[in-house]
Amino acid sequence: MGLFLPAAVHAEFSYPTNGGAVYYTITNGAITITSWASAVGYTNACIPATISNLPVTSIADDAFYDSTYMIGVSIPNTVTNIGNNAFFQTFLFSVAIPDSVISIGTNAFYWCNYMTNASIGNGVTSIGDGAFALCESLTRVTLGTNLISIGNDVFANCLDLNNVTIPNKVANIGNEAFVATSQTRITIPQSVTNIGIDVFGTCGNLTAINVDPNNPAYSSIGGVLFNKSQTTLIAFPESSASYYPNYTIPNSVTKIESWAFYSCSLYDVTMFGSVTDIGDHAFNDCYNLTNVIIPASVTNIGDSAFSGCYDLTAITVNPNNPAYSSVNGVLFNKRQTTLIQYPGGLAGNYTIPNSVVSIGDNAFAVNFSLTNVTIGNGVASIGASAFEYCNNLMNVYFTGNAPSVDSTAFYLDTATAYYLPGTTGWTVFAKNSGLQTALWFLPNPAILTFEPNFGVHTNRFGFTISWDTNISVAVDACTNLAKPAWTPIATNTLTGGAAYFSDPQWTNYPGRFYRLRSP
Questions:
Q1: CATH at residue 506
Q2: Which domain holds residue 383?
Q3: Cβ(173)–Cβ(196) below 8 Å
Q4: What is the C-alpha separation between 471 and 518, in angstroms, rounded?
Q5: Which domain-ending residue is among 392, 420, 440?
Q6: Which residues contact 126 (CB under 8 A, 6 or more apart)?
Q7: Which of 229, 319, 467 is nearest to 327 (CA)?
Q8: How many domains does the chain have?
Q9: pLDDT tens for residues 75-110?
Q10: Interacting residues of 80 by C-beta distance below 8 A, sequence separation 6+
């Protein structure tokens, strides 16, 4: 009599093994390992090739997730798939993946911090995102010959990993695949047709990225990675700055890719008039960079392109640039309504012009020398991380109403936000920004010309007077500034530091001028 099994058995069974027990399900006559119960103490997990004469073909998502007593695993050559998070944060010292395995899931060996070496079989065609990320002790990886795709962040933050050979069938290398590793040299084989963003960022030992001359999509000059036609500069090896502290971008380049120079120790970079596009974070954390000149040709500068450049004292824009401008080394859009980047090496106090409507993301971030900022009354919004990690920022003075503010804008800052009496929105601002707020009392009374009550209204002309609490302020008027004859027309007591003045007689005069004084 034959044994007939249904296509899928959803019940979970246990099977004792050396080092504990595995739990499994049956689908279409094949076994999927779903979890593991370890024996007492640190041990090796032995996954059987068969259970009840049925082949073990898959390791399910999360099967050994956070199994902190697992220091080794034996994977049989019947397994074809390793699921997402399958060995997430285990104590594995090493892993050998057999040739039978075709795919390795997302975060499969993520944060296996004790793993020192990994051998990936020749059957594997794709490695999922973050599969070996944060394996900080990983020093050696052997990639299988049939590998086609290396996902995003696969070896990210494997701090000791070096000398990985990319097989010559690989077509795709995902974003940040080797970021923060110890690679010294990388060779891109002929087969690679897609390289993601910041693949080799923060590789402090990387001196060269070489490309097979027959590669149809990419090329390299002096170890710097470009597209084939050398119109896009993709990645500048971080350690190359030791050899090229002053780098001239080839005049064929029209685009600097996002993260291209990230964390490089360049002192100077020269761009020709061919460059039109500077990508996001392109020069982020280039801590030795002191000066940047933006040519007239540049029409796009990405987010945080020059953030974290601690020694940068000036960003100078060619006056003929149609999209950007600079004032005293500070980068703005052309109309100076957006402050894009305040150089990280500028120290002391800074006043943001009243023309500025928005302060961009990371505009002042990681500036350790900035102490005081006065924000113009035109500013309506402050972007994400705009003043993040400004450790010595003590005071922020607002000359207008409270702007909208991203919750990260003043992250880890201890500054006090000072605002003028009569301005509005500070309760919400304090809640969203996390800053302590306080009234800012000026040495002389001021007219708030920016707020909604300023100017002509029904049957009156008026404005808000801001100064100090419970102080009296007289308003005088005259009709001719050439021969002024000032007439007192009102005295206002500034309850809470502000009071509203209105003049119902203003229509009786062809022109009228006002001044404030102490009574």
A1: 2.60.40
A2: 347-440
A3: yes
A4: 9
A5: 440
A6: 102, 103, 104, 147, 148, 149, 151
A7: 319
A8: 3
A9: 999 999 999 999 999 999 999 999 999 999 999 999
A10: 57, 58, 100, 101, 102, 103, 123
Any residues with CB less than 8 A from the CB of 135 and at least 6 apart, and which?
A: 109, 110, 111, 112, 113, 115, 118, 155, 158, 161
Q: Are 459 and 408 part of one and the same domain?
A: no
Number of residues that make up the chain: 519
What pLDDT is recorded for position 56? 98
Q: Are residues 511 and 451 in the same domain?
A: yes
Secondary structure of residue 192 in the 3-state scheme:
coil
pLDDT at 197: 96
Is 352 part of a structural domain of the chain? yes
Cα torsion at 50, 54, 55, 60 (round to 10°)? -100
Q: Encoding tokens for residue 252?
A: 């064929």
| Contact present, 48 and 24 (Cβ < 8 Å) | no
> What are the C-alpha distances in Å from 121 to residues 76, 95, 145?
12, 11, 8
How many Å is the Cα radius of gyration of the chain? 32
CA distance 408 to 410: 6
Residues 6+ apart with CB under 8 A from 496: 421, 469
Confidence of residue 441 (pLDDT cuts 50, 70, 90): very high
Q: Indicate whether 501 belongs to any domain.
A: yes
pTM here is 0.90
Q: Is the pLDDT confidence value at 364 over 50?
A: yes
Provide the mean pLDDT of the chain: 95
Q: Which two tokens stand for residue 90?
A: 């285990």
pLDDT digits (tens, 9 = 90+) for 305-341: 999 999 999 999 999 999 999 999 999 999 999 999 9
92: tokens are 């594995």
Q: Considering the domain boundaries, does residue 379 fall inside one?
A: yes
What tens digit of pLDDT does each residue of 169-221 get?
A: 999 999 999 999 999 999 999 999 999 999 999 999 999 999 999 999 999 99
What dihedral angle (degrees, nearest 10) is formed by the CA atoms of 482, 486, 492, 498?
10
Q: Which of 428, 417, 424, 357 is nearest to 390 (CA)?
A: 417
Contact of 259 with 236, CB cutoff 8 Å: no
